[in-house]
């Protein structure tokens, strides 16, 4: 599936508890050798929600949050259960999702804003982080179940995110690395966002980055706790509600790729050569 072009391979491991190693996830996500995706998602049974969603980045790392995959999995489960609401457990907590017409709305939970919750390497104001890399400086840091650095710029065009993204992702200030966003205010309640994702690189969209962006822009007084966020792959409607929860609404899409799996041994080995 994909959410605004941020694409996923989703394994249903609810019955056999299918478990993919970091190497296996890297292989599946590889766009040349494997199927190719930004994140690999595995569904497991949950004791507290309708389903547990495991998230592995294209580099094999396991993470706590993925907004776009949450919408996709929510849509699958809403269809399967014939329900209007669903709960999804992740490493970061229990998320609630519901139908919103053809779209899915997810309560992405509460942002964490203290320096040691991001986490940063040392104490500082997360609304103005002491960091300058290339032409980018003073990001807002937000944790949405995963760490985000949000840089506000006059124009997102012409910024070399391929060059600066990895430098910031792996900067010593972020002991767990960081997702890196550049945000331009295009109008009242209208933000343009480009993202370099931790463990995946440039993606067409990042739901948790959109959450972090509406929180960061609100803290800086650029929006009034709500925004339409325009990503490379489409638009997400975001709100940071008065109860401190971040609400995300957007599209999902199915990509039927079952036949692509046939040549692969999913333990992480490509056995096409033997066939
Ligand atoms: N694409 C996701 C975020 C996936 C995880 C992220 N790369 C991380 O390492 O934290 C989204 O839509 O939120």
Automatic annotation (TrEMBL):
Keywords: Amino-acid biosynthesis, Cytoplasm, Isomerase, Lysine biosynthesis
Site, as annotated: Could be important to modulate the pK values of the two catalytic cysteine residues: 148, 197
GO biological process: lysine biosynthetic process via diaminopimelate
Residues given in the record as substrate binding sites: 6, 39, 57, 67-68, 146, 179, 197-198, 207-208
Reaction(s) catalysed (UniProt annotation): (2S,6S)-2,6-diaminopimelate = meso-2,6-diaminopimelate
GO molecular function: diaminopimelate epimerase activity
Cellular component, GO annotation: cytosol
Subcellular location(s) per record: Cytoplasm
Biological or metabolic pathway of the protein: Amino-acid biosynthesis; L-lysine biosynthesis via DAP pathway; DL-2,6-diaminopimelate from LL-2,6-diaminopimelate: step 1/1
EC number: 5.1.1.7
Catalytic residues, chain numbering: 66, 66 (proton donor), 206 (proton acceptor)
Membership in a protein family: Belongs to the diaminopimelate epimerase family.
Functional note: Catalyzes the stereoinversion of LL-2,6-diaminopimelate (L,L-DAP) to meso-diaminopimelate (meso-DAP), a precursor of L-lysine and an essential component of the bacterial peptidoglycan.
Subunit architecture: Homodimer.
Name of the protein this chain belongs to: Diaminopimelate epimerase
UniProt organism field: Emcibacter nanhaiensis
Organism lineage: Bacteria, Pseudomonadati, Pseudomonadota, Alphaproteobacteria, Emcibacterales
Gene encoding the protein: dapF
């Amino acid at each position: 599936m994909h959410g605004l072009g941020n694409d996923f391979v989703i394994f249903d491991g609810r019955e056999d508890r299918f478990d993919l190693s970091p190497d296996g996830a890297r292989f599946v996500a590889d766009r040349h050798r494997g199927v190719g995706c930004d994140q690999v998602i595995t569904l497991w049974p949950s004791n507290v929600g309708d389903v547990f969603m495991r998230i592995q980045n294209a580099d094999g790392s396991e993470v706590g949050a993925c907004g776009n995959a949450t919408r996709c999995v929510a849509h699958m489960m809403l269809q399967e259960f014939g329900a209007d609401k669903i709960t999804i457990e992740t490493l970061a907590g229990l998320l609630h999702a519901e139908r919103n017409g053809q779209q899915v709305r997810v309560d992405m939970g509460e942002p964490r804003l203290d320096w040691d919750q991001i986490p940063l390497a040392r104490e500082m104001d997360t609304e103005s982080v002491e960091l300058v890399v290339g032409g980018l400086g003073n990001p807002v840091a937000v944790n949405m179940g995963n760490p985000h650095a949000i840089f506000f710029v006059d124009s997102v065009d012409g910024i070399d995110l391929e060059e600066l993204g990895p430098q910031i992702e792996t900067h010593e200030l972020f002991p767990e690395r960081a997702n890196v966003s550049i945000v331009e205010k295009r109008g009242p309640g209208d933000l343009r966002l480009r993202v370099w994702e931790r463990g995946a690189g440039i993606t067409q969209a990042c739901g948790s980055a959109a959450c972090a962006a509406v929180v960061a822009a609100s803290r800086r007084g650029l929006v009034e706790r709500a925004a339409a966020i325009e990503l490379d792959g489409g638009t997400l409607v975001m709100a940071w509600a008065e109860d401190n929860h971040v609400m995300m609404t957007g599209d999902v899409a199915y990509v039927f790729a079952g036949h692509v799996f046939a040549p692969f041994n999913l333990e992480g080995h490509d056995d096409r050569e033997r066939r």
